[in-house]
Amino acid sequence: MPKIIDPSFRSITSDSFSQDISPSPSFTSRHPWPSSLFYLQITITIASATIILTYPSIMQLVVFDLDYTIWQPEMYQIDGPPKLMSVDEFQGKQKRKSNSQPRQLPLGYTTIHQNKIATDRRGTPITVFDGASHAISEINRMRKEKMDLQLAISSRTDEPSWAYQLMKWLVAADGIPLSKCFDDQNLIQISYSDKYKHFESLHRKTGIPFENMVFFDNERWNCQSVEQLGVKCYHTPNGMTRDDWNLCLEDFGLL
């Protein structure tokens, strides 16, 4: 009988079957991976012995929703297509009286253009959530360090063309435009179909197992749909936070 080696580096040979294996045993890995890690189990039956090989899931694909997960407000909430407005105009310096206070710049307003902010036609600012900005910049760093990690989008936004424009303007915490962070067009799923189908498409295009995918979305029903595939989902009802990202890292043993 050939030698079988499981991920805990325990060797099982024909000699050990009579010593260690009862008619229907099951083994779990003894490797000291963190207990919070996700695992993929493969069961192999040889003769009357059942061997369970346990592998930790590896985060390989991080998928983000757009509206109210990466940025706010949602596209259906803004008045007309987004535009760039100068910081001076936004703060009202051209109209305000000398003794009045300028309008405060919101967090996450930075764009690729110095001293310009993304707004709608009424001047409502469009900004990136701090948690999303931080997470995306962290992923950029991980990729520079040669970690096998890809970024994707799964969105049902009402205005795809506006979303694509904002991705060109808005930047992550490291100053990189979102369009360059999500640089593989094949991994940008923007359509009104169920996100279950978005992930089936991502799986076909990347070959990455669902268990090695992560999804952040502000709508619980989207998470519930995608979870059926085995994807680890994080509900972000108030926009993505750093705590959401840190929980993901903890779950995959990266923090």
Tell me what the structure shows.
The chain has 255 residues and is an alpha/beta fold. It folds into three domains: 4-56, no CATH class; 61-77 and 127-251, Rossmann fold (3-Layer(aba) Sandwich); 83-119, no CATH class. The chain has eight helices and 13 strands. Strands 11-10-5-12-13 form a five-stranded parallel beta sheet, with helices on one face. β1 and β2 form a beta hairpin. α3 crosses α8 (242-251). The chain is elongated, with a radius of gyration of 24 Å. The two termini are 41 Å apart. Residues 1-36 have low confidence and may be disordered.
Question: How is this fold's topology laid out?
Answer:
Layout: E1 4-5, E2 11-12, H1 14-20, E3 39-46, E4 49-56, E5 61-64, E6 71-72, E7 83-86, H2 87-91, E8 116-119, E9 127-128, H3 130-144, E10 150-155, H4 160-169, H5 178-181, E11 188-190, H6 195-206, E12 213-217, H7 220-227, E13 232-235, H8 242-251
Parallel strand pairs: 5-10, 5-12, 10-11, 12-13
Antiparallel strand pairs: 1-2, 3-4, 6-9, 7-8
